[in-house]
Write a structure and sequence with these properties.
The chain is α+β, with helices and mostly antiparallel strands and 505 residues long. The protein is built from 17 helices and 20 strands. The chain starts with a strand and ends with a strand.
Length: 505
């Protein structure tokens, strides 16, 4: 079956250390460290969501020695688009500039260039599209999916410490070198949740002018409601996947799967989602499952029948909760009490920390990458396993993606034999690099769109935004269109004039 053969990351060098951020904002570092992570990256001067994407793909092409003529599918998964017409083709144009600089042929003109959007799930949808391409008319070619995002939240909001920026490029082939993806047994879930997490264009009305020419893409979100939506959607996707597995109790799968990778907006969310999914599986299970759940209820001091009424069977109607003014209430309060109790038990050590542990600590330094968060965790897991010489061949993994708004995908995977050769090429540590730690004033400048107050890190073997068009005349218009430039490794930034590559409709 088709699957993943390579992974490459690009992270901007501008980093906010969350311990510093806590001191700037009088926030409890111990809590932020445990719940959120250690740091996050920010888009810097001369960077955009498209340059992040192109830089990740360029690193993938080089690391895996990909013939650009063999690429038949280049998809972009993002929720940070700044162009409402073009997307992946912008990335393709930048790559052709770099290929020409290195004396290599351009990418094939016979290449599909779709963009996928559904909050943080867009990259997973793009990957499913690539796998279907490889299983049908593209069986003899290669596919690349790049997940690229810029997560920004209003300063002073509860989401502020969960920001991030970066991109992950994924090489997919009919005969994968890292992971076989079993689409035939995958699970999908979707349901409209209105005010979960949205980005309506109305946000842009009246925005103050930014000197970097970008719009500030701050989401409209409701934190506790979004958490309830996440928990419910991942449960439904798991149910759909497990229904295709055939035989056995659903709760047993949680013990037999070797490793789990989930969408992670911040460090603690995946463990909470996975633990809650297990409680739901017990509630939907047989008498033995109910007996286990009842034992946890007694330990927590929760009435078992009340718990069962809360989590067994049908999902709560989230839209009705909004209409009733209850969106700020936890939809699963009793199950939440159980989850907090279970954190102190051996079950948590084995079922949660044990299954979600591979690469998890490394991810604390990336922040929220939206669509790129899940593939980045896969890259971190493979890197950690390779460094530790773990025996992974034939293991069964689960990738569980989520997109606010509200949808989830559960993808069963199997680690390829001989995965080590492909994993050795993943550039995770190189992508982490030697970041530039921002002070409070530099952070505010980048966040609020005044990058001139931050000295740009020298670009090397990467793409930058050279300038943004301002012409609006009858015979030529390029207002708002980004022009890009490839900076070879031997150059310093701005060492040569711009090449004329732009996004056009």
């Amino acid at each position: 079956m088709p699957g993943i053969s390579g992974l490459a990351l690009y992270l901007p060098p501008y980093r906010v250390n969350l311990e510093d951020w806590c001191s700037w904002n009088n926030q409890p570092w111990d809590k932020i460290r445990k719940v959120v992570g250690h740091s996050f990256r920010m888009r810097g001067p001369e960077q955009s969501v498209y340059t992040l994407a192109a830089n990740a793909v360029w690193r993938l092409i080089q690391a895996y020695d990909i013939d650009p003529q063999e690429i038949g599918y280049l998809a972009l998964g993002t929720e940070s688009s700044s162009d409402n017409s073009a997307g992946a083709v912008i990335v393709k144009g930048m790559l052709d500039d770099a290929l020409a600089t290195h004396g290599k042929p351009a990418m094939s003109r016979e290449c599909e260039v779709p963009e996928f959007k559904h909050a943080c799930l867009g990259g997973v949808y793009a990957m499913k599209g690539a796998l279907r391409f490889l299983a049908t008319d593209g069986a003899t070619r290669k596919a690349i999916v790049v997940c690229s995002d810029i997560a920004e939240y209003e300063r002073g909001s509860t989401g502020e410490p969960t920001q991030g920026a970066g991109a992950v490029a994924i090489l997919l082939e009919a005969e994968p070198k890292l992971l076989h993806v079993d689409l035939a047994r995958s699970g999908s879930a979707s349901d409209y949740r209105m005010v979960d997490f949205r980005k309506p264009f109305a946000r842009f009305r009246g925005q103050p002018q930014r000197s970097d020419g970008q719009m500030q893409d701050l989401p409209v979100f409701n934190g506790r409601y979004s958490t309830s939506c996440y928990v419910d959607a991942t449960r439904q996707a798991m149910n759909a996947m497990l229904a295709r597995q055939g035989g056995g109790r659903r709760a047993d799968y949680f013990h037999t799967v070797d490793a789990v990778f989930m969408h992670r907006p911040y460090h603690r969310m995946p463990s909470a989602g996975w633990a809650m999914a297990y409680l739901f599986a017990l509630a939907d299970g047989d008498a033995d499952n109910h007996a286990e759940l009842a034992e946890y209820a007694r330990g927590t001091g929760v009435d078992f029948n009340d718990l069962l009424a809360e989590i067994a069977g049908a999902s709560p109607n989230m839209r009705e909760r909004v209409a009733a003014g209850a969106s700020g209430d936890d939809a699963f309060p009793l199950a939440g009490d159980l989850m907090r109790y279970l954190r102190k038990t051996e079950l948590w050590t084995n079922l949660v920390a044990g299954k979600l542990g591979l690469g998890s600590d490394t991810m604390r330094d990336l922040g929220n990458l939206y669509t790129a968060a899940l593939p980045a965790w896969l890259a971190a897991g493979f890197t950690e396993a390779y460094d530790a010489t773990l025996a992974l061949g034939g293991q069964h993994w689960l990738a569980l993606g989520y997109g606010s708004g509200d949808a989830a995908e559960a993808l069963p995977m199997r680690v390829a034999e001989g995965w080590e050769a492909a994993a050795a090429k993943i550039n995770f540590q190189e992508a982490l690099g030697a970041p530039l730690n921002l002070d409070a004033n530099q952070y505010a400048a980048l966040h609020d769109g005044h990058p001139a107050d931050v000295e740009p890190a020298p670009a090397s073997d990467e793409f930058v935004v050279d300038h943004i068009g301002e012409t609006d005349q009858a015979d030529f218009r390029d207002v708002g269109i980004e022009y890009y430039r490839y900076v070879p490794a031997r150059e310093a930034n701005h060492a040569q004039p711009a090449t004329a590559h732009k996004a056009t409709g």
